[in-house]
Amino acid sequence: MKDKLKKILDEAMAQIDSSDRLDRLNEIKVSFLGKKGELTSVLKAMKDVAPEDRPKVGQLVNEARKTIEERLDEKREIFEKAILDEKLKSETIDVTLPGKKLAMGHSHPNTITLEEVEDIFVGMGYEVVEGPEVEYDYYNFEALNIPDNHPAKDEQDTFYITKDILLRSQTSSVQVHEMEKGKLPIRMIAPGRVFRSDEVDATHSPTFHQIEGLVIDKNITFADLKGTLQEFAKRLFGEDTKVKFRPHHFQFTEPSAEMDVTCFKCGGKGCRFCKGSGWVEILGCGMVHPHVLEMSGIDPEEYTGFAFGVGLERITLFKYEIDDMRLLYENDTRFLKQF
């Protein structure tokens, strides 16, 4: 048995030393140490060894196994080192070269402004609501007190898909959807993309973004409207910002007004930006027209409310003193990375 073990060990050493590839070592390991290997067959034959010799034979088998495993590990390290050296030669890296710089993006100026506006109104208890961009003419016009053939439609000429379906020209349609749900009171803003057939220039685009606001509750007055929008302006443009309301006409509010804020460049002293007036217009607002409430199933004798609408691009241009709206849409990273 001792001679047989020596013969197995010598044969294993010879095969390991003569092996020329890494996978050959695995074949040798299976051949000698596997379940059907040479050393395993010796252990299975232990039943034929005299009881007094079994400890000695078992020790010899374990020593042979250990020797074979050690030689396999040594040979494997040699192969792996050779493979690594070859790989390093073929994949040489010049560590003195500058690394690849990952370009990190950030939010668009419109998104930054929108998130700030949403934070302001959510902090005042408002809900942010979204609605469909493809809308029925009823919700975009008629339910807002703008019937067919009304002159106000000309000011919001939009893109019609069919006679009754269009791309919304204002997010006020979202307000109608919310009023029709009948869940009162309502405190909401509706930001979103709108469409009008405007020519592209420094202050106009056929697609832009609006933020509409709506409050419906008992005993809501114009004073609530003024206080809310004054607080909004101060938080968005600074505590020194003053507001001014000018009478205006909107078909879906009565009374209606346009709100101006003190010029951001001159602080109200008068400059080229505000055309010497010290004020810039930022939004339209008013008390919700009783007929609009009635069409949405709300009793105007019990509930009143106010609404306002501001162009997102407009306040973005003012906030960052950008003089051309088209810059927001050109995706020029030289411009966008400034914000």
TrEMBL record:
Pfam families: Phe_tRNA-synt_N (PF02912), tRNA-synt_2d (PF01409). The keyword Transport does not apply. InterPro entries: aa-tRNA-synth_II, aa-tRNA-synth_II/BPL/LPL, Phe-tRNA-synth_IIc_asu, Phe-tRNA_ligase_II_N, Phe_tRNA_ligase_alpha1_bac, Phenylalanyl-tRNA_Synthase, tRNA-bd_arm. GO terms for biological process: phenylalanyl-tRNA aminoacylation. The gene is pheS. GO terms for cellular component: cytoplasm. Binds 2 magnesium ions per tetramer. Keywords: Aminoacyl-tRNA synthetase, ATP-binding, Cytoplasm, Ligase, Magnesium, Metal-binding, Nucleotide-binding, Protein biosynthesis. Its EC number is 6.1.1.20. Tetramer of two alpha and two beta subunits. This is Phenylalanine--tRNA ligase alpha subunit. It comes from the Bacteria. It is found in: Cytoplasm.
